[in-house]
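Format is sequence with structure; example below:
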Amino acid sequence: MKIEIWSDVVCPFCYIGKRKLEKALAKFPNKDAIKIEWKSFQLNPDQKTDTSISTLDHLASSKGWSLNQTREITSNVVEMAKAEGLNFDFEKAVVANTRNAHRLIHFAKESGKGDAMKERLLFAYFSEGKNIDDFDTLVELGEEQGLQEEEIREVLESARFDEAVDGDIYESRQLGIKGVPFFVLDRKYGISGAQADEVFTQNLEKAWDEYQKEKASVQIESLNKGENCEIDGDC
């Protein structure tokens, strides 16, 4: 059974939601029969990479908040991340366009390393303050996952996987996805946002039961909505 996940690399709830799904899968008796497929989604496709300011500074400027206000608002997200064993550092996070990171994930998917690449990029952005739009950085992160330097650079310096990224985004619109993370279980059940653990467990069990009975439907019949990041930048 396939679980498709629309997600952006700079979305905090996408990382938190990834951990919640992983916890549900760890308890799921049929976890070995589950295939995860990461789908591209850009919250701000026109974002210009800017290493001169932190994500906190950028958020304060774009929202019209003071830096202290911004720290207070993001502190709740930091605590949510800690509950999932994640360490977010918005002071270090670099403002970056995510398109090249998504292209790298698509390249990694070809050799079965998509999930590992996604995890590494999320950690690089949220915990290490790495510029995930910088080619040298992306090459380094890709090599850590066993990808070849020359092949990574060939991808980044070309237009390869641009169509794949655009295709994922177009598909998200067809499904009515307006915020991420968005989990589609067997094209039958949708989970919007980083929901409570039991929501992932319950929907995983329901989707599996349906999967056992019949072929998946293209239509999402059940939608659960939780914390997410939306296209306008609200998290």
Q: What stands out?
A: The mean pLDDT is 94.
